[in-house]
Amino acid sequence: MKKPSILVVEDDADIQQLVSYNLIKSGFNVLCADSGEEALRLIAREQVDAMVLDLMLPGKDGGEVCQAVRCQEATRGLPIIMLTAKSEEDDIVDGLGCGADDYITKPFSPRVLIARIEAVLRRTPAPGGEPESESIRIGSQGMEIHPGRHEVRVDGSEIHLTASEFTILELLAGRPGWVFSRQQIIDRIRGYDYSITPRAVDVQIFGLRKKLGDSGACIETVRAIGYRIRP
């Protein structure tokens, strides 16, 4: 089986070396970039399975790189984990809001980083690597969700979601009418030890509704509890 290739975008040489060493030791192939511009050039010409992205970079910062990746047809589904010293709640919300799948603050545990990378890769099946599974249909919305293909269509048109957005939609659509709390959503996507605040879940829901267009109205906010999808 081909080893997944991880692009590490980090301008601090010591951190870049630390992350690369632990990734290689865990069986990944590693590419490195010192700037946002170099990262985008590498993604354009190399096969990359996930990216570890610093937020504060010379030239294009991590947020701009993340948005550029999400705007390109060929790369918009690329899993992105932000690894940064910016640890305030607003920073985390902004990072997730620009399209990151996960957010880890420095100082960090290499073991936790590896676990997060493995988790986001599991949520993003390789082409041809997943058996066909039964689709989920939300009838009145013209929405069809294919878990095996990691694909969402609304009225026949494909909607491109990040791994986190897809997992949230799949969770809600799996039990139409059922209310999921913000903590339940965090637990499903990240695991029980994830320290992100519920506000960041709201950002993910906002982005999901926006991408779904008129069909996004089927995701309802249940005051003081969480979210559900209307059957």
Low-confidence spans: pLDDT under 50, at least 5 residues? 127-132
Total number of helical segments? 8
Summing up helix and strand content along with how strands pair, one would put the structural category as alpha/beta
Q: Which value, in Å, is the CA radius of gyration?
A: 17 Å
The overall average pLDDT, rounded, is 86
Strand content: 15-25%
Strand count, sense and barrel status of the largest sheet are: 5 strands, parallel
Q: Percentage of helical residues?
A: 25-40%
User: How many angstroms separate the termini?
Assistant: 40 Å
Strand order of the largest sheet: 2-1-3-4-5
Counting DSSP E segments of at least 2 residues, the number of strands comes to 12
- Coarse morphology: globular
**Oligomeric category:** single chain
- Helix and strand string, N-terminal first? EHEHEHEHEHEEEEHEHHEE
Molecular structure report:
- There is one protein chain.
- By secondary structure, the chain is of the alpha/beta class.
- 39% of the residues lie in helices and 20% in strands.
- The chain has eight helices and twelve strands.
- The strands form three sheets. The chain has a five-stranded parallel beta sheet, with helices on both faces. The protein has a four-stranded antiparallel beta sheet with strand order 6-7-8-9, covered by helices on one side.
- Strand 1, helix 1 and strand 2 form a beta-alpha-beta unit.
- Helix 2 packs parallel to helix 3, helix 4 runs parallel beside helix 8 and helix 6 crosses helix 8.
- The longest helix has 15 residues.
- It is globular and about 50 Å long.
- The protein starts with a strand and ends with a strand.
- About 3% of the residues have low confidence.
